[in-house]
Amino acid sequence: MNPFDLNVAAIAGELPIGGVIPADRLDRYIDAAAVLQRNRSRAAAVLVAARRHRDRIRRQAEEVLHEAYEEAERRAAQAAREAHDETCATVVRWLVEEHELERVLATRLEARCRAWVCDAIRVLVADSDRTATLVSRIDAQLRGLMPHGDVTLRVCPAEHDAVVARLPSDRPFDIEVDTSLERGQARLDSPYVQLRIDLGRHLSSVLRAIGGTEEMNAPLDADAGAEPTNAAIAHEAISPDAPTEASHD
Fold first, then answer.
1. Parallel, antiparallel, or unpaired: how do β-strands 244-248 and 152-155 relate?
2. pLDDT tens-place string over residues 52-78
3. Which stretches are annotated as coiled coil (predicted)?
């Protein structure tokens, strides 16, 4: 406590014997203390400035580190998105290629199956009795025409005898030869309806629906003396309903 409001300073130096310090020595002590105080103040200021600079550098380093971390996270996320997109694109491309491959295989398999079915039909037709097929269709159509009046069956000359032999002798209708008809064809005439049976046309429509070639869809052999063609024998082996053409007189 300093009740007299005096400036009291501590001065480093030797105290002479007797306790009296000469004025010149005291001045040197005071000057030395002042220099020391100035140097301490400067050192303190330098230290404060250094600490502030250190703190500023530390904050900047933390900011740079934080920005670098965020940039690394951003780049990692971007790389992950790009990798994900590339993976998805690759998977989609694989799926598309797989789908295309399946489509090509299915198309080829379908074509082969169609060819196999057509071949099977041709073999089945070749082993069938064309006349029996034609008579079967004639008999089925006669059942619907007989109640409507007299019926006349017209067949080609080459199949006349075979058809007559397969029909009952007590048949209630006439059988005539029609040179305009080919093998596998027949016509039923009644007072009101004219009905045509064409096994070759039916076979052609079946093969066309299956996807047969033009060769498979070729018309029946028009030569009355020729051997029955595959198309001529198709009817009953393929479907219970042969194509017919009906015209009303």
1. unpaired
2. 999 999 999 999 999 999 999 999 999
3. 62-89
The CATH number of the domain holding residue 202 is 3.30.2320
Q: How many CA atoms lie within 13 A of 8 on its CB side?
A: 6
* Residues β-bridged to residue 8: none
> At residue 47, does pLDDT exceed 90?
yes
The token pair at 42 is 């400067």
Q: How far is CA 223 from its chain centroid? A: 52
Q: What's the Cα-to-Cα distance from 76 to each of 70, 71, 72, rounded to whole Å?
A: 10, 8, 6
What pLDDT, on the 0 to 100 scale, is given for residue 2?
Answer: 60
Is 163 found in the same domain as 142? Answer: yes
Amino acid at 244: T
Residue 136 domain flag: yes
Same domain (yes/no): 149, 123 = no
- Would 13 be classed as within a structural domain? no
pLDDT cut 90: percent of the chain above it: 20
Residue at a domain's end among 85, 108, 127:
127
Asked whether the predicted pLDDT for residue 44 surpasses 90, the reply is yes
